[in-house]
From TrEMBL:
Protein name: Cytochrome c oxidase assembly factor 5
Pfam families referenced in this protein's UniProt entry, alphabetically: Pet191_N (PF10203)
One GO cellular component term: mitochondrion
Keywords: Disulfide bond
GO biological process: mitochondrial respiratory chain complex IV assembly
Family named by the database record: Belongs to the PET191 family.
Record lineage: Eukaryota, Metazoa, Ecdysozoa, Arthropoda, Hexapoda
Function in brief: Involved in an early step of the mitochondrial complex IV assembly process.
Length: 80
């Protein structure tokens, strides 16, 4: 999870926005994007991202899935 200093808030306040922002930053800071000059989408398709980004990708998937799952209504949305 990214640490935001002071009163910084994300512009996107929708569900899963924090996970999405962390995944985006993880991908942009990966070697695949920095050194190979690939887009984050290309890095995800090539599976050439670090394990931390894979975990965030799975967390983002689970968060988006929980939005559609009626059983999750009572438990709340996953993510942060």
């Amino acid at each position: 999870m990214m640490r935001y200093e002071g009163n910084e808030k994300l512009a996107d306040v929708t569900s899963c926005a924090g996970v999405r922002a962390d995944l985006k930053m993880c991908l942009l800071e990966s070697e695949c994007c920095r050194l190979d000059k690939k887009t984050p989408r290309q890095c995800l398709q090539d599976n050439s991202v670090p394990p931390e980004c894979q975990v965030l990708r799975n967390t983002f998937y689970e968060c988006k899935r929980s939005l559609l799952d009626n059983r999750q209504r009572f438990r709340g949305h996953k993510g942060y």
